[in-house]
Design a protein that fits this description.
21% strand, Rossmann fold, seven-stranded mixed beta sheet, five-stranded parallel beta sheet, alpha/beta, signal, 13 helices
């Protein structure tokens, strides 16, 4: 009996391993040569959990495309194949991984967790594509949200599928503007381009829309290197702040909200990413009605299509710690598949031209690419943390017993903002 149980456990482990192998190994017999996609992301180090969450999302999206036969080129049907390149959260390592990805034959590079990395990749890809047009690559960005990436640094070869920081902040500001009890706000973020952009825009929008709110704290901290946020939480509480606004993500957010709980901070958290990766469980009961998150989509968006989409993801990845699904990443892969089908080619230049007019819908969520700056436009949702089972909260997060009730939905046209991009297109 013991041997049988061990054998069953081994079979289950092997099945799980097979489900998480690079999808290049999953091509169907007789299918055409796979279209290679290279994921350049933190797969080790302090932000490995965010990288693995991205991988699960992309893997699931690619499985869906491949299940229906892959993409169509002039040579016939071809599957998509995703290869992993660990940048360890470092910019220089990301550039090394870019070279490795190009050498492997990948024509589509995917990255998002760090706007600093994204900026470096945009520059490197621009130079590479000009120098070596036979091996051009297209950059699909799912999470790097510094506004500069589709403004001053906009590139024909770069497409952003997440709402940028100013767009997300504008959605959050709708709730902040309505909170008439709020008089004191603390701003805190990670000390790199994205974190700096969030705090800069927060101060601008507060001055414009809530000039009566005093900013009682304004600081940046090293990204991914702070192990103890108690000193920061102590300052937040001592400042008399009634709310904190932060763009922190990954462990930098989880540790911050844990420290705030430990010092009995009783204010609200207005966040970009407070809806997962340990943050709800870290805040616990103290977060009910106080943690606010903005996203392109939330599991409790009140439609039957949305609920079914979320249930499908949870069936594919049933472990509570794997519960972090991004609608935008699903739409990104759908847009890529659509562009390849329309181009009937995986040639990066032809696909990029088709991506400029991408218009995709999944589970009732529609998004389209703005050709002028390559910013994807989609609805946004703002949610407030509540107990699982409360009205509007049929789903919790990561088995924590807490979920996010959607309190505001912003249409794609209302979420859109202007841009300063001067796009240079290849002739």
């Amino acid at each position: 009996m013991i041997l049988l149980r061990r054998r069953q456990a081994l079979v289950q482990s092997l099945a799980l391993l097979a489900s998480t192998l690079p999808l290049a190994a999953a091509a169907q017999p007789g299918a055409g040569e796979p279209v290679k996609l290279a994921l350049i992301e933190s797969l080790s180090g302090p932000f490995a959990n965010t990288g693995e969450a991205v991988y699960r999302n992309l893997a699931w999206a690619i499985e869906r495309v491949n299940t229906r036969g892959g993409v169509t080129t002039a040579q016939g049907k071809r599957p998509l194949a995703l290869e992993r390149f660990d940048n360890k959260g470092q910019t220089e390592e990301s550039l090394s991984m870019l070279r490795a990805a190009i050498d492997s034959g990948a024509h589509f590079v995917l990255q998002g967790n760090s706007s600093a990395v994204a900026a470096a990749l945009i520059d490197a890809i621009n130079k590479h594509n000009e120098r070596d047009p036979a091996r051009r690559v297209v950059f699909l960005n799912y999470s790097a949200v510094d506004p500069i990436l589709t403004n001053e640094l906009c590139s024909f070869w770069h497409f952003r599928f997440d709402a940028h920081a100013d767009m997300r902040l504008t959605a959050l500001m709708q709730l902040i503007a309505e909170d008439k009890q709020l008089q004191r706000m603390y701003l805190i973020g990670q000390d790199y381009s994205f974190g700096q952009a969030v705090l800069r825009e927060a101060k601008r929008q507060l001055a414009e829309k809530r000039p009566d709110v005093a900013v009682v704290g304004d600081e940046l901290h090293p990204i991914g290197r702070v192990k103890d946020f108690l000193p920061y939480a102590t300052k937040i509480k001592a400042s008399g702040a009634q709310a904190v606004l932060t763009g922190n993500w990954g462990n930098d957010l989880t540790l911050l909200v844990k420290a705030a709980r430990d010092v009995d901070f009783d204010g609200r958290f207005y966040t970009f990413y407070g809806n997962a990766l340990g943050a709800p469980a870290a805040m616990g009961e103290a977060g009910i009605g106080k943690v606010v998150a903005v996203a392109d989509w939330l599991p409790n968006v009140p439609t039957a299509e949305s609920s079914e989409f979320y249930r499908s993801f949870r069936a594919r990845f049933p472990k509570p710690q794997d519960d972090y699904v991004h609608m935008r990443m699903q739409l990104m892969i759908e847009a890529l598949a659509q562009a390849i089908d329309r181009a009937r080619s995986a040639d990066p230049l032809r696909v990029a031209r088709e991506l400029e007019r991408a218009d995709v819908t999944l589970a009732g969520q529609r998004g389209h690419m703005r050709a002028a700056d390559h910013q994807f436009l989609q609805p946004l949702a703002v949610g407030v943390m509540e107990r699982h089972g409360a009205p509007g909260v049929p789903f919790d997060v990561e088995g924590s017993g807490y979920g996010f009730r959607v309190v505001r939905q912003v249409s794609a046209d209302k979420a859109a903002m202007g841009h300063s991009c001067q796009m240079k297109r290849p002739v």
